[in-house]
Amino acid sequence: MSEKVIIIGSGPSGLTAAIYAARADLEPLMIEGMEAGGQLMLTTDVENYPGFPDGIMGPEMMGLFRKQAERFGTRVVSQNVTRIDFSERPFGVWVDSEEFRADAVIVSTGASARWLGVPGEEKLRGHGVSACATCDGFFFRDTEIAVVGGGDSAMEEALFLTKFASKVTIIHRRDEFRASRIMVTRALEHPKIEVRWNSVVEEVLGEDAVTGIRLRDVTSGVVDDLAVEGVFMAIGHDPNTNLFQDVLDLDEAGYLKVHSGTMTSIPGVFGAGDVVDHTYRQAITAAGMGCQAAIDAERWLDGQE
Ligand code: NAP
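Above: inputs. Below: predicted complex with NAP.
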């Protein structure tokens, strides 16, 4: 049996696409992936999503999105897509050996946290190295920790971590943050937060758990060790497009290319959210794009009949 629409991914864009597709009687099947809910599951307070004047926790918001998608009949498969074949219609989507077919596909696989790739980082992941303050901050009560990065994520993580840590040092490779002014002000004014400007992490130190990080000042070249028990990476994200290499057109950074709204290089396959957008990357813009993709898919399917 062929589905009308399969949605791959379940962040704000995928779930919004599901709400719209379900309400258009397209009976969407969502393959939500192992990181269901996407990056908002790793976020604390969302203060800029319209309609929540008092803010809302990221996971709670994704729970509400999902409830709304299911209310209109979205069916959810809680696994990762392992293979796709878009060479003929209906398009093929596999979860291990289980095969699904669909007349249209919406790709909303999002983006994932980036790592530094320095010695010690991978070995100590989960033992003091993390990319998720919400998940792991609790373990760093009364300790000194570092956050790497200069964007909004780094500010947000650092501020959140002050609830637990005795001191948070932000390590940034330049002399200026790229984060929004309000977040920078909050971070710089916080008594528990210090900044090491123009510094890069050369190594994460420790055998079984993090004991420190080796820093190099990029202006003076001076190398020194900072004793910390935790280091949180907040250096951006990469799009989850491995499945689509050599199948869909991607840009130099690996993001899905779309045209005429949300159409990818294969008619009938649409893209939405952070897997496409490396400029705005907000929950609200991802949700908006998910809505566009569902409407584009609906119109395209209508045109095929
Ligand atoms: P980002 O804006 O891309 O910032 C990444 C930061 O990491 C940059 O400061 C970058 O330095 C640094 N960096 C990247 N690679 C590095 C490396 N190899 N070594 C050292 N530093 C490295 O990513 P983001 O902070 O995750 O934010 C992504 C998007 O989400 C943004 O649009 C942001 O506004 C949004 N966001 C919003 C909120 C909020 O509004 N509450 C919260 C989180 C994220 P350079 O500055 O030198 O490039």
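The helical segments are 12-23, 58-71, 133-136, 152-161, 181-189, 283-304.
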